[in-house]
């Protein structure tokens, strides 16, 4: 089925009296590459947290791969194939880099019950992909902030998701590194992984996205072809013009 | 070493300990040694929840006393062989752990710890008001001269049972450390949100840890009535159990089973020696002083101090206390 993979309707989230998300609708097709942009504090990460089950949304529905996710715990969603990276890296500090990747391999890939894979070679492969080759036995505390972002991305990839949501995986990366991660994400997408990329680096978003979605103050104000969306006057005013 | 050979090595060590104790030909060695072994079980068992998942349980005395009171109740109802009684105490305390976990594991850090302390207070109040097991007056339990089947002095029998329990708890703890479960526990200890996002069913794992940890604490308490022959709530629920059981893993190192083992042997032996040479009144002082010393000089415990544990090096004492 190559139809809709993710379907969000009327998603709303508040923190106390503050409305962080105000009725978001979004549909993402299987295999699509979607860029999600918006000013700081517009609700992008909150949106990701609601999709992944890290936060509970008060209203609205999320359907993923043909089934509703309402009330499902985060680990169940990850097992269903919805993986995300955290904007601020959250490595397991007492585990080595390799062990960090072993967690999703053991708890997601093996738990799916479709056979086991060799953990060590898979870890090495993932680290190679994100540019951390040979760092398996190091502890995350010794990584730079940028390397932690790469580990964060590798850990999300280790779950072998159908939908990968990368929350600012490229912040702080050098020009070359951004290109490397872009190439990696494009390659994953080539293999059929649907990707939502949240990014402030416009060069990367524009290069990557087939579709661009703009959030401003918890509302979706635009959704369409990237070139058209960034010329949308409302987007310019609310976002690019500021 | 794989699980089964390791188990055999543990058995061999236990046999050697028992033989060495016999060679001393001194009844007091068994009497004091029992307490040391009891603390080994408690410290290693406590550490399954406290060290591996980072949830600090202050309610040790509650689980321990529940196991002991289970023995008192069973002794009155249907006298059974002690190993069976210990198992029963373990099941009851494990169930308490499961219930406590269900009610409190949504709490993090210090809030969880305070809730466990409250649980112990509730359990104590319950026992004070339950005449069947002696109520506030306490209960006497007759200790047989010799153990059935074994034909050895009963204190030696208690020592032997506790030694066997040590082997079991250490083997189980090591098995967990080396399994997927141990990885899941470590992920929970480090970051629960990230653990969930990585597919770890955090609630289920935490419930398993509280139940298993509670079970071992209860099993450690089950033979107590036969050891002391008189059990009353203040002694069964003594704060010393909670303090010692937390201090021992902290002193030894919480990352893996050798830490609580070493901590328990060290502190409990010191306390037993002090009980004879000075007074049992200094026992809490000893553990307090040693703990303060370690917090200052070796915050990662003995294991971490000697750099024996790679994980311990990563982050000193990442227990949940103070984190929310
Ligand atoms: N746990 C929380 N409690 C209260 N308010 C929150 C919480 N998380 C986020 N917010 C608020 O919700 C709003 C949206 O935050 P969010 O992190 O989703 O923004 P964002 O679009 O990801 O921003 P950025 O580009 O800076 O990452 C912000 O105003 C933020 O302060
Ligand atoms: Mg964000």
The CATH class designation of the largest domain in chain A is Alpha Beta
**CATH fold assignment of the largest domain in chain A:** Rossmann fold
CATH class of chain B: Mainly Alpha
Low-pLDDT runs of 5+ residues of chain B are: 312-324
**First and last CA, distance of chain B:** 38 Å
Give the overall shape of chain B. globular
Strand content of chain B: under 5%
Can you count the helices of chain B?
16
What does this structure look like?
The complex is a heterodimer of chains A (242) and B (324). By secondary structure, chain A is of the alpha/beta class. Chain A has 2 domains: 1-81 and 161-242, Rossmann fold (3-Layer(aba) Sandwich), CATH 3.40.50; 90-160, no CATH class. Helix content of chain A is 38%, strand content 26%. Chain A is built from 9 helices and 10 strands. Chain A has helices at 44-52, 74-80, 97-109, 119-130, 145-158, 175-190, 202-208, 226-231, 233-240, and strands at residues 4-15, 18-29, 33-37, 59-64, 67-68, 82-84, 163-167, 194-198, 211-216, 219-224. Chain A is globular, with a radius of gyration of 17 Å. In chain A, 46% of the residues are buried. The model of chain A has no long low-confidence stretch (mean pLDDT 92). Chain B is mainly alpha-helical and 324 residues long. Chain B has a single domain, classed as ABC transporter involved in vitamin B12 uptake, BtuC (Orthogonal Bundle), CATH 1.10.3470. Chain B is 73% helix and 1% strand. Chain B contains 16 helices and 2 strands. Chain B has helices at 3-23, 27-53, 60-77, 82-104, 109-128, 154-177, 180-190, 192-197, 202-221, 224-228, 233-236, 239-252, 258-277, 283-297, 301-305, 310-314, and strands at residues 139-140, 230-231. Chain B has a two-stranded antiparallel sheet. The two termini of chain B are 38 Å apart. The chains are: A alpha/beta (242), B mainly alpha (324). The complex binds adenosine-5'-triphosphate (ATP) and magnesium ion.
């Amino acid at each position: 089925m190559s139809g809709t993979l993710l379907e969000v309707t009327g998603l709303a989230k508040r923190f106390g009296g503050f409305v962080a998300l105000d009725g978001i609708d979004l549909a993402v097709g299987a295999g699509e590459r979607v860029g999600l942009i918006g000013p700081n504090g517009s609700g992008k990460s909150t949106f990701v947290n609601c999709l992944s089950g890290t936060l509970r949304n008060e209203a609205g529905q999320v359907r993923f791969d043909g089934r509703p996710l309402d009330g499902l715990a985060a680990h169940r969603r990850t097992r269903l194939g919805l993986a995300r990276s955290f904007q601020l890296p959250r490595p397991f500090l007492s585990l080595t880099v390799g062990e960090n990747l072993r967690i999703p391999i053991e708890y997601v890939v093996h738990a799916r019950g479709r056979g086991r894979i060799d953990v060590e070679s898979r870890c090495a492969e993932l680290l190679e992909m994100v540019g951390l080759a040979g760092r398996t036995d190091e502890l995350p505390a010794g990584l730079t902030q940028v390397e932690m972002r790469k580990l964060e991305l590798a850990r999300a990839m280790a779950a072998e998701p159908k939908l990968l949501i990368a929350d600012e995986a490229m912040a702080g990366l050098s020009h070359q590194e951004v290109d490397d991660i872009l190439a990696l994400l494009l390659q994953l997408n080539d293999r059929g992984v649907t990707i939502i990329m949240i990014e402030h680096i416009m060069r990367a978003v524009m290069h990557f996205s087939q579709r661009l979605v703009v959030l401003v103050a918890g509302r979706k104000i635009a959704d369409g072809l990237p070139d058209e969306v960034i010329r949308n006057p409302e987007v310019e005013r609310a976002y690019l013009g500021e | 070493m794989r699980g089964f050979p390791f188990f055999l090595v543990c058995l061999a060590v236990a046999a050697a300990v028992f033989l060495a104790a016999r060679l001393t030909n001194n009844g007091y060695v068994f009497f004091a040694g029992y307490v040391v072994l009891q603390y080994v079980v408690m410290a290693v068992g406590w550490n399954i929840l406290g060290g591996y998942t980072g949830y600090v349980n202050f309610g040790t005395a509650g689980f321990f006393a529940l196991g002991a009171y289970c023995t008192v109740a069973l002794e009155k109802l249907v006298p059974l062989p002690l190993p069976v009684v210990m198992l029963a105490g373990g099941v009851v305390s494990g169930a308490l752990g499961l219930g406590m976990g269900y009610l409190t594991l949504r709490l993090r850090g210090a809030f969880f710890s305070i809730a466990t302390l409250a649980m112990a207070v509730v359990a104590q109040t319950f026992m004070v008001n339950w005449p069947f097991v002696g109520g506030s007056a306490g209960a006497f339990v007759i200790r047989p001269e010799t153990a059935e089947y074994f034909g050895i002095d009963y204190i030696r029998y208690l020592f032997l049972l506790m030694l066997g329990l040590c082997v079991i708890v250490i083997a189980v703890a090591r098995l967990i450390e080396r399994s997927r479960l141990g990885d899941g526990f470590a992920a929970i200890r480090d970051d629960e949100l990230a653990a969930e996002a990585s597919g770890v069913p955090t609630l289920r794992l935490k419930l398993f840890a509280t139940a298993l940890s509670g079970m071992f604490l209860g099993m450690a308490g089950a033979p107590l009535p036969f050891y002391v022959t008189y059990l009353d709530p203040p002694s069964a629920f003594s704060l010393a159990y909670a303090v010692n059981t937390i201090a021992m893993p902290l002193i030894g190192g919480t990352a893996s089973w050798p830490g609580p083992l070493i901590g328990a042997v060290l502190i409990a032996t010191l306390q037993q020696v002090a009980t004879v040479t000075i007074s049992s009144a200094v026992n809490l002082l000893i553990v307090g002083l040693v703990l303060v010393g370690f917090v200052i000089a070796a915050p990662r415990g003995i294991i971490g101090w000697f750099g024996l544990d790679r994980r311990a090096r990563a982050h000193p004492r990442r227990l949940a206390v103070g984190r929310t």
